Automatic annotation (TrEMBL):
<dbReference type="InterPro" id="IPR029048">
    <property type="entry name" value="HSP70_C_sf"/>
</dbReference>
<feature type="domain" description="WW">
    <location>
        <begin position="44"/>
        <end position="78"/>
    </location>
</feature>
<feature type="compositionally biased region" description="Basic and acidic residues">
    <location>
        <begin position="692"/>
        <end position="702"/>
    </location>
</feature>
<dbReference type="Pfam" id="PF12237">
    <property type="entry name" value="PCIF1_WW"/>
</dbReference>
<feature type="region of interest" description="Disordered">
    <location>
        <begin position="674"/>
        <end position="729"/>
    </location>
</feature>
<feature type="compositionally biased region" description="Low complexity">
    <location>
        <begin position="708"/>
        <end position="722"/>
    </location>
</feature>
<feature type="region of interest" description="Disordered">
    <location>
        <begin position="129"/>
        <end position="176"/>
    </location>
</feature>
<feature type="region of interest" description="Disordered">
    <location>
        <begin position="95"/>
        <end position="114"/>
    </location>
</feature>
<dbReference type="InterPro" id="IPR039881">
    <property type="entry name" value="PCIF1-like"/>
</dbReference>
<dbReference type="Pfam" id="PF00397">
    <property type="entry name" value="WW"/>
</dbReference>
<dbReference type="InterPro" id="IPR036020">
    <property type="entry name" value="WW_dom_sf"/>
</dbReference>
<feature type="region of interest" description="Disordered">
    <location>
        <begin position="1"/>
        <end position="39"/>
    </location>
</feature>
<dbReference type="InterPro" id="IPR001202">
    <property type="entry name" value="WW_dom"/>
</dbReference>
<protein>
    <submittedName>
        <fullName>mRNA (2'-O-methyladenosine-N(6)-)-methyltransferase-like</fullName>
    </submittedName>
</protein>
<feature type="compositionally biased region" description="Low complexity">
    <location>
        <begin position="129"/>
        <end position="140"/>
    </location>
</feature>
<feature type="compositionally biased region" description="Polar residues">
    <location>
        <begin position="19"/>
        <end position="31"/>
    </location>
</feature>
<dbReference type="InterPro" id="IPR022035">
    <property type="entry name" value="PCIF1_WW"/>
</dbReference>
Amino acid sequence: MSSENHNTAGGDHPALVMSPTSSSNQGQPLSPSAAKPTLELPDDMIQAGWSKCWSKRENRPYYFNRFTNQSLWEMPVLGQHDVISDPLGLNAAPVDPGLDNGQRKRRLSEETAVGGANSFKRPKVEIMPVTPTTPTVPISPSTPGPPGTPLSKIWGSPTDEKQQPPSAAPTPAPYRPTAVYWDLDIPTNAVIKERPPSDALPPHPDVELQRAQLTLKLRKHYLELCQQREGIEPPRDSFNRWLLERKVLDKGKDPFLPSECEPVISPAMFREVMNDIPIRLSRIKYREEARKLLFKYAESAKRMIESRNATPDSRKVVKWNVEDTISWLRKDHSASKEDYMDRLEHLRKQCGPHVAAVAKDSVEGICSKIYHISCDYARRIRDCHSALLKECNISETVEAPEIQDRLVYCYPLRLAIPSPPQPRVDLHFENDVACVRFKGEMVKINRNYFSKLELLYRYSCIDDPRFEKFLSRVWCLIKRYQAMFGAGVHEGTGLQGALPVPVFEALHKQFGVSFECFASPLNSYFKQFCSAFPDCDGFFGSRGPFLSFSPVSGSFEANPPFCEELMDAMVSHFEDLLERSSEPLSFIVFVPEWRDPPTPALTRMESSRFKRHQLTVPAFEHEYRSGSQHTCKREEMYYKAVHGTAVLFLQNSAGFAKWEPTAERVQELQGAYRVSGRTLTSPGPVPATGTGDKELETEREQGTSQETPSTGDTTPPSGVTPAPDPASI
């Protein structure tokens, strides 16, 4: 018997019941004739939690205690209870002390009725979609409505009770997250100049579904081009880093796919594909594996130089070095692993420039073709979106409101174009997972994070107080980040990796940090943050992309995705903001400590005049929260960092005076960074680009047990030398 069947005759509040399919009785009080006439209980019985209810199954009254979950056919006696007199079997379910009185676990009798506790089959429930014409209540889907509104009445009702008259019920308690990785009560200290709303088109599930499908096709095109033209698999996460690098330059209208970039050929994609030609190299643990890798590289280099339009000199150099290497392999059977790796490094330096020269045009063709397909897809999505708005009589050109030249505390990004009516989107829960479905496409999110999205939406959204568009916007949000991550195992999750909760707590306590420069509604710790997608993230608290966000004062944390071009643009933006502002302004930046070769962003920050302090957290001695934290299991939430993390404090004079990184404060931050017992035994994915140490980290993050990427520069010097140049392995 579900909680809505406990129709109190002498309850604390009158109940309001919403019909999921009709708006005529919305918000109507309970009719006196709708419930069976019952007698009032004595005051001492009511205070003890007893109420007289009506059993629809037995068609007779019974007595229910909302404090102890006891039910009796006979009038209860205070202080006494006979378990035998509980014919409904409601006492079989123990009371969960973590739940309020109204929110009780399902009884064993209900579970067995639908096929067992672990059965996928659920009772017949008609899910109520959220549409502009469907009545809803001004609450969230995961918290109760007005007193007496059952959760099942908001999102659906059992089909066998659809024709039953309204009845009173105790107020169900809101869902309480079991693990919280955020603090949404911290106010912001970030001050900005008042800005106009964004001209981005409002999100819509139909458009987002098309965007996700076309993005998947674009990924497949990239895979096929790499396989057919170069005979290699696409470098891991290279497509995701291409998206990030392109959006730094992109001036197009699509919030996700690049459509107006200069230059057309992406340096990031070109560099990563060239790095894997002719084969992807790995660091090896065992001698025999090193021998096989050397032989494979020699054969691949020879085959490529013979099948491409190479110059006679290139053919001669590569052929001579390959034959010399194969001859050495056949003769020397006592070589060590280090000997094989030294020989491989020498072969790469001799053959690498010639192999790169013959592959250059082909790789540039891959980059160019992917970009032009992306432009075509972005245009198709824009046309579809414009047609949808036109059908709803919504204009894409909106008169810009008058903005005053004043300083205000930062606020979520607003859209200038009104949102069109939203289609049907369904919600149901499978244990601790919220499943949101649109046209057969289901996205899933842990119930803790679904509750977080509800809170962010409540704080940030101003055009939907009745939560009529909440589910459709949640679906668009999760679908967008699914498209960004990719379909591979752990693919893209490192792009959304976050600092551990104790580090955020220390940053706020010691340095006044209240804002994240690179986050999302799914992984943010504060309720104020910048994120990649202004159109769908703004409803959940985003202040828009950081490179277009210009704070005047405040204390900020920056943990950017590990894309070199994005990090370099971030440093330029930091220095510009610190140069212009005389108010207290501070940025605490977390970047990977890549030294082989060093990244331009790290080098620039270390030499910046705004750098006040720098510290390094060693590799494998700290952790990150997974980028898939909103879907992963609790034990998979954290993973060890396989690279050192450089922490740099960039502050202007006023910011340094207010949030100076003193020895005591820095020590507190380092203490918060200590590895906890929650860390996974094998490191999780954190993307890296480039060569040297970065390749080593990337391969470790893929979970390989015996292989990690090769060392050394990806572009060996030209010329032939008579002896191998030993490499530092």
